[in-house]
Amino acid sequence: MNRRKHANLVPVAALVRWVVVAFFLCTAGLCYVYFKNQMQTTGNEIRSLERQLDTLITQDDTERAQIDRLSSQSYLERRLAEGFIQLTPITDARIVRVHLAGSRATAALDTADDLQPVSNRIVAQ
């Protein structure tokens, strides 16, 4: 009778081995799905950021073209003729001239008296 009890035992070692293998395969499958999902999400985010970058580059080019157009000499001259831009002439009293010693024939005139002070005040005319 005791022989029969020992003959009906469940092979625990084989069962544990297959449970560990199944657990490992399930974990590997879940990790694979997680990483593929993360890669897909990151790819979509990168694609969205690249589209935004292209849009910003296009806007930047448009703004640069407008800046070039609005700062061209012909446009500024036309706006000056219309009276939109008010310019005041630069007088000699507002210009500072610095003369180097080698640029003049007489070096005796090169003193601190040659410098003229600059005034940043706007003179009403």
The main β sheet shows up as: none
The radius of gyration computed from the alpha-carbon positions, rounded to a whole number of angstroms, is: 43 Å
Give the helix proportion (percent range).
Answer: 55-70%
Mean pLDDT over the residues: 82
Large-scale geometry: rod-shaped
Care to count the β-strands? 0
List segments where confidence is low: pLDDT < 50 over at least 5 consecutive residues: none
Structural class computed from helices and strand pairing: mainly alpha
Question: Separation of termini?
Answer: 128 Å
What tags apply to this protein structure?
single chain; 125 residues; mainly alpha; 60% helix
Could you explain how this protein is built, in words?
The protein is mainly alpha-helical. The chain is rod-shaped, with a radius of gyration of 43 Å. The longest helix is centred in the N-terminal third of the chain and has 59 residues, at 12-70. The model has no long low-confidence stretch (mean pLDDT 82). The protein has helices spanning 2-7, 12-70, 73-82. The chain is 60% helix and 0% strand. The chain has a domain at 2-85.
